[in-house]
Amino acid sequence: MTPLSSPRKCLSCRETQVLPTVLPSHIEEMEHDGRKYSVALADFRVLKCQNRGELVVDDEADEVLAKALRDAAGLLTPAEIRRSRESLGYTRQQLADSLRISMFTLSRWETGVQILQRAMDAFLRVFFRSAEARSVLGARAREDAAAATPAAAAIGF
Fold it and tell me: CA-CA distance, 113 to 135, in Å (whole number)?
């Protein structure tokens, strides 16, 4: 946690009493993708209003919470997504095109700014592990299928 040169102002009590603190143990109830998760954290560094006891989550604490949520939900980490993409030799744009998503969405997943939904997590796992899945989703496979059969061309394969 970046040290503060002076306390911050609390948005609730409007007093300058928000200071860094370490919570020896903290349980956070979090919701993601329609499910609730109970996340236990040890030595959780947050900001806390000394008057009201309210916690203020800064960027560092938010990253800790996001990592804990990914762990609790069993989701791919940003590093796992990036490593898997790179191990296949894909650029961000190539992977985004293959998955039919925006490159900016993929970038948010790889940088940890956005936590992907469970369905997309499963989709990515299949894509990364299965050459057949990549072939089905690949532009080259669609072009080959369209050229091979008139029926496939008619439905956009």
Answer: 29
In terms of Cα–Cα distance, which of 30, 50, 35, 115 is closest to 81? 115
Q: Sorting pLDDT into bands at 50, 70 and 90, what band is 56?
A: confident
6-26 burial, b if ≥16 CB within 10 A, otherwise e? eeeebeeeeeebbebeeeeeb
Give all domains of the chain, ordered by start, each with its CATH number.
Answer: 18-73 (3.10.20), 78-154 (1.10.260)
pLDDT tens-digit map of 65-115: 999 999 999 999 999 999 999 999 999 999 999 999 999 999 999 999 999
DSSP 78-145: HHHHHHHHHHTT--HHHHHHHHTS-HHHHHHHHHTSSPPPHHHHHHHHHHHH-HHHHHHHSHHHHHHH
